[in-house]
Specification:
The chain has a single domain (57-267), classed as MetI-like (MetI-like fold, Orthogonal Bundle), CATH 1.10.3720.10. It has a two-stranded antiparallel ribbon. By secondary structure, it is mostly helical. The longest helix is centred in the first third of the chain and has 37 residues, at 58-94. Helix 5 (114-125) runs antiparallel to helix 6 and helix 10 (184-207) packs antiparallel against helix 12. It is 71% helix and 1% strand. A hairpin with a 5-residue loop joins strand 1 and strand 2.
């Protein structure tokens, strides 16, 4: 329940950020740089969470940064999940050369450390929001593919699948109506954990300057901008770090609950 509450707050902040943010996240006031939480500007308005090194409001940047983190996390999982499930079903259902080819491609990709692969690709292509989503999504298929293949191998020989074939169902109908609905539970759980992993990956890449451009407020870029001011001000680094930590913990907690809820053996 704590994880659900945190996620509701984070999603609400992301959706309604333009309405609830006290200032625009890109407005800089150098005269108000590194103001502590609770300080006021020259007009008397409160900086509830302080300001960063350029005098930008930390609360506004956190709210808009939630949009970027959730957009990257969810979009990359959708791309990787669709691609991985399609290839995993193909490998598990048809087997033979399709299975060998798809799984060997997955093994080759998984042999590379993920963060090094992201850095190498983005160092060539350059930073950008859509590029980050694309690289995280395309490289995320392998895990979905292996899990889907294992589930299909366990389901394809069961009686109800054989009955569907005997009734004249083609491969497409058998997969869509009888196999996919029975393997979705572990894929949903895997997707929840993948969202958390993608949020951390995006923050890491933005921290290194290879993710979201500095002009776009992101939790990773906020951490990167604040690292040289740690001795003078703790809040520019602590607040986005805390936001990342709580969001990832909440997603993992909900993922654990989904695993228990969707697995009949664990529910018993």
């Amino acid at each position: 329940m704590a994880g659900v509450v945190i996620l509701v707050v984070v999603f609400g902040a992301a959706v309604f950020a333009p309405a609830i943010a006290p200032r625009r996240p890109t407005d800089a006031q150098l005269i108000d740089r590194l103001k502590p939480p609770g300080s006021r500007d020259t007009a008397g308005r409160v900086y509830y969470l302080g300001t960063d090194s350029l005098g930008r409001d930390e609360l506004s940047r956190l709210l808009f940064g939630a949009r970027i983190s959730l957009l990257v996390g969810v979009s990359a999982v959708v791309i990787g999940g669709v691609l991985g499930v399609a290839l995993g079903v193909c490998a598990g259902y048809y087997g033979r050369w399709a299975d060998d080819l798809i799984m060997r491609l997955g093994d080759i990709q998984l042999a590379f450390p993920s963060i090094l692969l992201y850095i190498a690709v983005l160092a060539v292509l350059g930073p950008g929001l859509l590029k980050v989503i694309a690289i995280l999504g395309v490289t995320g298929w392998a895990t979905f593919g292996r899990v889907t293949r294992a589930q299909v191998l366990a389901v394809r020989e069961l009686e109800f699948v054989g009955a569907a074939r005997a009734a004249g169902c083609g491969d497409a109908r058998t997969i869509a109506r009888h196999i996919l609905p029975n393997i979705l539970a572990p894929i949903i759980v895997l997707g929840s954990f993948a969202v958390a992993a993608n949020i951390i990956a995006e923050s890491s890449l933005s921290f290194l300057g290879l993710g979201v451009p500095p002009a776009i407020p992101s939790w990773g870029t906020m951490l990167s901008d604040s690292q040289q001011y740690l001795q003078d001000a703790w809040w520019p680094a602590a607040l986005p770090g805390l936001a990342i930590t709580l969001t990832v913990l909440a997603i993992n907690a909900v993922g654990d609950w989904l695993r228990d809820y969707l697995d009949p053996a664990l529910r018993e």
